[in-house]
Each structure stands twice: as C-alpha cells, then as structure tokens.
Amino acid sequence: MNPFKLDDVNKRNSSTWTACNNDSKSKKHRMTFLSMFGGEFVQDGKYVKWQLIQKPQPVYVPKRLLYFIDPNKQLLGIDNMTDYCDKHNLSKSAMYEVLRGERKSHKGHVVVPKEATTDPVPETDIDSNITS
Prior knowledge:
Elements: H1 15-21, H2 26-37, E1 40-44, E2 47-51, E3 66-69, E4 75-78, H3 81-87, H4 92-100, E5 110-111, H5 126-129
Antiparallel strand pairs: 1-2, 3-4, 3-5
Helix pairs in contact: 1-2
C-alpha cells in the first residue's frame, strides 16, 4: 500500500506533508517519495515544498536533409519528405524518383547534386544545376 498521496504532499498537516516535514524520519520519507513520484523538494521557510521538475524536450535534429530546388528556384532542405509532399500536393514516390535520378523533375522540383550540398547553402549558381 502506498503511504503517500501526491495531492497531499504540499497540504499542511496532511499525513504525507507531516511525514516529509515534521517526522523524525522525514529525510527517509522524502527520498521514498522522490523515488515514487520524481521531482524535488525545495526549502520553503522552515519546511520543504515538493515541486515537479519538467524534463526538457529533446531538440529535433534531422538525420539528413534532401536538397531540392523548387519551381521558384529556391533551395530547399527537406528533412521529412512525407510532410513536405502532403503540404505541397506532391507525389512522394515521384519526388524520390527525382532524388534517385530516374526523373528529371516533378512539378518543377529538381534535385541538387550531392557535391553542391556539402555546405549548408551551396555556393554554385542555382541556374546551372537545372537541366531541361
């Protein structure tokens, strides 16, 4: 049976609050409470107060970018082909065919050669990469 109630930990004179603050074994009770619910206890005057620690959200870093030139001759670095194709009404399979070199373009989208994408923004002339 769980002796602690999460809702009562910061309510003065509740059994959980008393165990974590005024009891002779309060340090042991606080460690048990933390192992069950996480968070941390911070000093609030004479007593301690429990608060939940928010874990930082992991930062999304794409594993690879697929570089294309759109019909407006803007360089695109696409990290999620499915989302991009859904958003721009493109065929995902046709875009992958362009990427593999089986098609020259799809609705004006042309692949950028790998040697031109070693830098985040290629220094080559964009018009020279497009073949008709």
